[in-house]
Amino acid sequence: MNTDEATVLDSASAERAESAESAEPAAPLTRRSLRSLRTSSSLEPGRVHAPRRNSDAHRVWTPVAQAKAGLSRVRRGVARRTHGLARSFVVLVVAVFVIGLSVPANAFFSADKQTVVGTAVVSDPGQQVVTAQGVVAETIRTQDWSVLTFAEMLTLKYGSLNFAYATDWTGPIRYPFPVPVTISSGYGARVAPCFYCSTDHNGLDFTPGEGSPIFAIADGVVAEVHEDQWGFGTWVRITHQIDGHVVDSVYAHMQRGSTALKVGDKIKVADFIGTVGSTGTSTGAHLHLEIHVDGVPVDPFIWLGENT
Question: Which of 117, 171, 187, 226 has its CA 20 to 30 A from that of 103?
């Protein structure tokens, strides 16, 4: 303790002694009262105070102050440990990245496994089958497979169908159109073009274009006229007598309201029947023509080719 502080404390002790003689004992000095005493004593002439070197030397450590100081030290320690863990994690990530770039992908596979795999790819002889007679037959390898288009599959299944034909549109039996038109589907088994379409096609589909006029193939009498929502849609059946046989011609999927025929009407060859449409169960505008001989459906393409 220096001389100035001793002087201040002596003054305070003297004041307390005087007050003790005349009044109750004084309360202990607080930091505020001690600071006031120092300030008042410093104003006295001839007193010079040295600067404080350590603020904690004169601090009164109450329980609250001690708790705050301890909490501050704990926070600083946690911050230092967290920072250290973060730096360690960054170093680990960088090390793994460097190892991944520098080590080849096959470094962890044995040489034997690499050799087996390479040999299997290069020199696989293909599967072989031994028959009961002991003859070895080599199966088809995957490298020998080929891809067929949908048209090629139909050709393999149904054969090569050629619907080209010629007509001068004369004679007692004629095609339903005065000039050759395209045919989209023939008679017999087929791949159904829609969910409700038939796979056993009993007719021939002509596609001259929607609205094209349709004509009777021969003289006859109108047997049926229908305008259905499904199936053939708007269709007409005409009965003919040809070479001693009862022949029925069916004209289906016509435009609704395009025919004025009624049951019992007599028809001459090349008379107007209706127009090409897509009513009923249909995927596009076409004429579905059927030929029935004595109640049995026949191939219209073959029958017309033989009788026109």
Answer: 117
Among residues 198, 161, 204, the alpha carbon closest in space to that of 181 is found at: 204
| Contact (Cβ atoms closer than 8 angstroms) between residue 215 and residue 180 | no
> Can you tell me the mean pLDDT for 256-268?
97
DSSP 97: H
Spatial neighbors of 208 by CB under 8 A, at least 6 apart, are 177, 181, 182, 276, 287
Do the Cβ atoms of 214 and 280 come closer than 8 Å? no
Q: Three-class SS of residue 171? A: coil
Buried b (16+ CB within 10 A) or exposed e, 25-62: eeeeeeeeebeebbeebeeeeeeeeeeeeeeeeeeeee
pLDDT one-digit tens code per residue, 145-159: 667 676 566 555 544
Quick check: 52 and 31 in contact, CB under 8 A? no
Domains plus CATH for the chain?
1-21+28-45 (no CATH), 163-307 (2.70.70.10)
- What is the pTM (predicted TM-score) of this model? 0.48
